[in-house]
């Protein structure tokens, strides 16, 4: 039983020590892990902003925003991947996601201050 406890503690220690390794990744796998964590956070923020903006929109504006978002996703995916190489560039995805989140934030600010402008949603 002692051996099992030691293995669990070692696994926990390894996991805990890994949590801070994004500042100085030990290898390519750590770097990929950390890069993906940043993208995951940016994507979560984007989804939150998208949902918040929808609260201010009427039915027509929601439809326009949805079309705009789908077009943006297609554009992001095309510019941040290589079909022939089967590669996705996570840093590119992250940057474009951050930029889109900023855009959504500006639409939210606009809706809160002067009202939602339909043409701004395209």
In short:
With 122 residues, this protein is mainly alpha-helical. It contains four helices and two strands. The protein is 73% helix and 3% strand.
Structure description:
- The chain is mostly helical and about 120 residues long.
- Helices cover about 75% and strands about 5% of the residues.
- It has helices at about 1-20, 30-55, 60-80, 90-115; strands at about 80, 85-90.
- Strands 1-2 form a two-stranded antiparallel sheet.
- Strand 1 (about 80) and strand 2 (about 85-90) form a beta hairpin.
- The protein is elongated, with a radius of gyration of 20 Å.
- The protein starts with a helix and ends in a 9-residue tail after the last helix.
- About 10% of the residues are buried.
- Residues about 1-20 have low confidence and may be disordered.
Distance between the termini: 63 Å
Number of helices: 4
Order of helices and strands: HHHEEH
Described by the principal axes of the CA atoms, the overall outline is elongated
Kindly name the structural category: mainly alpha
């Amino acid at each position: 039983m002692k051996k099992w406890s030691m293995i669990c503690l070692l696994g926990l220690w390894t996991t805990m020590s890994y949590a801070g390794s994004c500042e100085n990744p030990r290898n390519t796998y750590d770097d990929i892990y950390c890069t993906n964590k940043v993208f995951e956070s940016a994507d979560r923020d984007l989804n939150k902003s998208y949902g918040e903006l929808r609260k201010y929109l009427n039915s027509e504006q929601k439809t326009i925003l949805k079309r705009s978002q789908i077009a943006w996703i297609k554009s992001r995916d095309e510019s941040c991947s290589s079909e022939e190489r089967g590669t996705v560039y996570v840093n590119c995805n992250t940057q474009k996601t951050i930029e889109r989140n900023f855009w959504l934030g500006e639409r939210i600010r606009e809706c809160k201050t002067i009202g939602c402008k339909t043409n701004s949603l395209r």
